[in-house]
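Limitations

Structures in this collection are predictions, not experimental determinations, and the ligand pose is part of the prediction. Treat each record accordingly. The example that follows, with arginine as the small molecule, is included so readers can see exactly what is and is not provided: the inputs are given verbatim, and the output is the predicted complex.
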Amino acid sequence: MWGGRFSQKPAELMQAINVSIGFDKRLAAQDLAGSRAHAAMLFSTGVVSGEDAAAIRGGLDTIAAEIEAGTFPFRDEYEDIHMNVEARLRELIGPAAGRLHTARSRNDQVALDFRMWVRDACDRTIAQFRTLQRALLEKAEAHADTVMPGFTHLQPAQPVTFGHHLMAYVEMFGRDASRFADARARMNESPLGAAALAGSPFPIDRVQTATALGFDRPTANSLDSVADRDFALESLAAASIAATHLSRLAEEIVIWMTPQFGFIRLSDAFTTGSSIMPQKKNPDAAELVRAKVGRLLGSFTQLSVVMKGLPLTYSKDMQEDKVPTFEAFDALELSLSATAGMVLDLEPDVERMSAAAGAGFSTATDLADWLVRELGMPFRDAHHVTGSAVKRAEVLGVGLPDLPLAELQALDARITAGVYDVLTPEASVASRRSYGGTAPDQVRAQIERWKEALA
Ligand code: ARG
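Predicted complex:
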């Protein structure tokens, strides 16, 4: 492509370090779309003739078909996807191919292709989050009344419902999806026409190409257009946060699956056995989702370090933007699919969850609240009396609902049998009717809200 200035071929090592077709072939569809829009614009602004534009269009169609059929010759000697396409176009249509690169550089071309790829990835990711949220909603609806322990410090804290717990993830994943939507909105400006870095002397129409490619507008500074990759960084940041959230659900699935907890069962579809221990059923998919966050955060770190301190505008360093981004989205998409699969697959052991919900004096706060409400005790005093009740129940080896009334009255003579109404996990859960609370009616209201939002 630059034989005019050069008389020697590159060293083999030069080619080895320089070549990117091995990974940027994933930009083929975006590259062709960009070239089609550019060619159409060059024709409508009179920069290339109708005849040449038609030849270019025909050649690009042939290339698209070749790529589709798997017959396109991806060649290392043409370095990257842009030059591979251009070289093939020349073989197919001859000299007219050379007119396609008028008013364009690989610098704005790669910025465009990569931006469109990330934009598509964001769209796919958002759709996957919706699928995952729907799976969670389905389980939450089935278990809006299923009590389980709510935890802080992984110690039983207060009873909640399994539906409420799952809905916490619906909220998290909703924010994750909206982070991708925000990033998408910000990245939706077309860099095409920034050319090498300074813009173009040809009468190009950047609004036309931007519109044709689904962008809101063209980017406003040609230097920034070819120099920046913050659209990728922002998406990787969103992806890292999302993977962090996924790892938390994955970790809970791992914990719930242990025989010690025994809260859920996963079918054989999402577990593996052990080659030596016949009794084992391991939650490998959940463990791998838990681990993927390392790859995601690594990708964000990689790209930040590549971009850090780069002077304006384009530097070849930026070719290193693609692999971490592709890897990150591949890992995220797989994690999202596996998580949605596991959520639909898992079945809670309602009895075990309910028994655990009542264990660990989980309704102690309900007792304290009852003392405040019914006896007018200051909360701090109620906390103290309840602490003594828990201590006594522990000594007697019973739960709070089974602590004899005489024992409670020994702590405060005004306590009546009415207190037992609040000491079961079911009563505890039903009483938490504050907006966003765990009472089944509140949970169902949130499920309805999300169902409408996702409809
Ligand atoms: N393969 C290059 C990349 O991924 C394309 C842009 C090359 N531009 C240049 N001036 N060498 O960044």
